[in-house]
Amino acid sequence: MVDLVSQYQEIKPEVDKAITGILETAQFINGPVVKEFQADLESYLGVKHVIPCANGTDALQIALMALGLKPGDEVITPSFTFIATTEVVALLGLKPVFVDVDEETFCIDAGKIENAITPNTKAIVPVHLYGQAANMDEIMAIAKKHNVAVIEDNAQAIGSDYHTENGDVKTGSIGHVGCTSFFPSKNLGCYGDGGAIFTNDDELAAQMRKIVNHGQSKRYYHETVGCNSRLDSIQAAVLKIKLAKLDQYIDARRKVADYYDNFLSQFEGVIAPVRGEKSRHVFHQYTMRLIGIDRNALNAYLADNGVPSMIYYPVPAHKQEMFAEFGSYATDLPVTDLLTTQVLSLPIHTEMEQEQLDFICGHIADFINAQA
Ligand SMILES: *Cc1c(COP(=O)(O)O)cnc(C)c1O
User: Fold this and answer.
1) For ligand 1, atom 3, which residue shows the shortest CA distance?
2) How far apart (Å, rounded) are the C-alpha atoms in residues 165 and 14?
3) Would the N or C end of the chain have less CB density within 10 A of its end CB?
4) 306 CA distance to ligand 1 centroid (A)?
5) Could you tell me what percentage of the chain is helix, strand and coil, using 3-state DSSP and rounding each to the nearest 5?
6) CA distances (Å), 39 to each of 32, 96, 107, 243, 308, in order?
7) CATH 3.10.450.50 at 4-99+106-243, yes or no
């Protein structure tokens, strides 16, 4: 699905030099490069505060912790997402309330959020799934009206531009807090685990800086219960180099997506990813919908022929056993249920060659034509 080896070869001299520099000074934790990367990311995203942390799941957890919610408070999220988004809600003793997604963008259906709001609703966590933004205009308007916080799960959409009346802003900088993951396969990935939290709110930033560091702002004086969540220097060094190339990486992904779009347009039962008007799709995944084509059989056929393809996500959160006790289990989410039977993601990355695209597309055509 991704080719991180070829990508590394392209930046090897820079990366090796940076990592060697850290080994030679042994500043593994909180080295100067962590602050440098933080500043670079703040300016790239146009946010006041970036707080690096250990992974994207921690980022979401810490953002929710900073809101100071109490057990039983409700958090609205989509069910059609990676489990981390919803898992941290339950982990903190909060109640996940699942809202269906939009059939075209795969993101939370803003038109269905207000119905799910109760006096206990304290936050909305939209997910910019596969690299495209949820309808943040509407979500922010609803949040303002009901006085709830918005935490953007930007793990799949870092670098995406969201179009507003006053020009483009970056996804993750629109809500009260934005979260991302630097898992190696993400659009901005490191060589291990990493994550970050973004905000323009000084108070939330101060609180989250404390939480990532055992609840202390002065060493050994712990004001609040926190955790230990750091981005190490080696990861920050890799990310600093890769952030400078992020826009170029996004362009490469968009070119692959253009090719797939064009190729797949010949098949009636294939719906290529719909590019919404609100944001620039950064194609963390290239996810098509198959209608009247046996998705699981295509997935298996491709695997047999050496072409990876993935179902993100086969079981939505509301059907996961872990939520059975939260009263959020098997909620009626028809679009989510439909999409989980239709979606299939194809390989997409920054180093894809025409030969690979031809190989993948050839096998897709063989399968569909043999069925017809
Ligand atoms: C990857 C991902 C996360 C979690 O990131 P980790 O760094 O793996 O903890 C959270 N939400 C979404 C939507 C993701 O894709």
Assistant:
1) 56
2) 39
3) C
4) 27
5) 45, 15, 40
6) 11, 33, 30, 11, 37
7) no
What is the fold, at CATH topology level, of the domain defined by 246-371?
Aspartate Aminotransferase, domain 1 (3.90.1150)
Q: Sign of the C-alpha dihedral, residues 359, 10, 171, 217?
A: positive
- Relative to the CA of 195, which ligand 1 atom is closest? 7
**Which residues of the chain does CATH 3.90.1150.10 include?**
246-371
The CB of 155 under 6 Å from ligand 1? The reply is yes
Distance 58 CA to ligand 1 centre (A): 9
pTM: 0.97
Report CA(224)–ligand 1 centroid distance (Å). 25
Q: How far is the CA of 83 from the centre of ligand 1 (A)?
A: 8
CB within 8 Å of 164: residues ≥ 6 apart: 137
pLDDT by residue for the chain (372 residues), tens only, comes to: 999 999 999 999 999 999 999 999 999 999 999 999 999 999 999 999 999 999 999 999 999 999 999 999 999 999 999 999 999 999 999 999 999 999 999 999 999 999 999 999 999 999 999 999 999 999 999 999 999 999 999 999 999 999 999 899 999 999 999 999 999 999 999 999 999 999 999 999 999 999 999 999 999 999 999 999 999 999 999 999 999 999 999 999 999 999 999 999 999 999 999 998 999 999 999 999 999 999 999 999 999 999 999 999 999 999 999 988 776 666 789 999 999 999 999 999 999 999 999 999 999 999 999 987
> Which DSSP string do the residues of 15-33 spell out, in sequence order?
HHHHHHHHHHHT--SS-HH
Q: How far does residue 77's CA lie from ligand 1's centre (Å)?
A: 14
Coil, strand or helix: which one is 179?
strand
Q: Atom of ligand 1 at shortest distance to CA of 59?
A: 9
Residues carrying CATH 3.40.640.10, the chain: 4-99+106-243
Q: Which residue has a Cα nearest atom 5 of ligand 1? A: 56
- Rounded to a whole number of angstroms, the distance between the first and last alpha carbons of the chain is 27
